[in-house]
Amino acid sequence: MKTILNVIWLVLSGFWLFLGYLLAGVLLCITIIGIPFGIAAFRIGVYALWPFGYTTVERQDAGAPSCVGNVLWLVLAGWWLTLAHIVTGIAMCITIIGIPFGIANFKLIPVSLFPLGREIVSTDQPFAAR
Questions:
Q1: Do 47 and 111 contact (CB within 8 A), yes or no?
Q2: What are 38-44's contacts with CB under 8 Å, separation 24+?
Q3: Cβ-based burial of 4 (10 A; exposed 0-12, middle 13-18, buried ≥19)
Q4: Within 10 A of 71 (CB to CB), how many other CB atoms are there?
Q5: What one-character-per-residue DSSP string does the chain give?
Q6: Lower Cβ count inside 10 Å, N or C end of the chain?
Q7: Could you report the per-residue pLDDT of 8-26, keeping only the tens digit for each?
Q8: Stretch 25-37: mean pLDDT
Q9: How far is C-alpha 56 from the geometric centre of its chain's CA atoms?
Q10: pLDDT tens profile 41-79
């Protein structure tokens, strides 16, 4: 079932969200300071490309640098990517068939706002990172 949902997701919105994260990652990697943020954008982009069957968990070893980095991310790229998820999620929820895809978009909002200090894991093992 996850594979079918992921293929439909890829066609409807996953590819476009992936391109948005890819663009944000490339723009952030232009400077040396932005490389960690660019890597986070690439990681979330792959998650946005194929979200069903995966979830995010907070890393226990993330500290103050992740918090500061998340604030910078929010200002630099997180706000715009989150707006893309909100708009796409609302558009998906218009039809009954699109509701699971809208919910998947809303599931991506917290990680698109604050990606640092989170790890993407399979839903079969959500506590493996802890």
A1: yes
A2: 40/73, 40/115, 40/116, 41/77, 41/115, 43/115, 43/120, 44/81, 44/108, 44/111, 44/112, 44/115, 44/120
A3: exposed
A4: 13
A5: -HHHHHHHHIIIIIHHHHHHHHHHHHHHHTSSTTHHHHHHHHHHHHHHHS-TTEEEEE-TT--HHHHHHHHHHIIIIIHHHHHHHHHHHHHHTTSSTTHHHHHHHHHTHHHHHS-TTEEEEETT-TTTT-
A6: N
A7: 888 888 898 899 889 988 9
A8: 88
A9: 9
A10: 898 889 888 888 888 888 878 778 888 888 988 887 788
Contact 106, 85 (CB under 8 A): yes
Query: Degrees (nearest 5) of the Cα angle 81, 55, 8?
Result: 70
Six token digits for residue 127: 């506590």
Whole-structure pTM value: 0.78
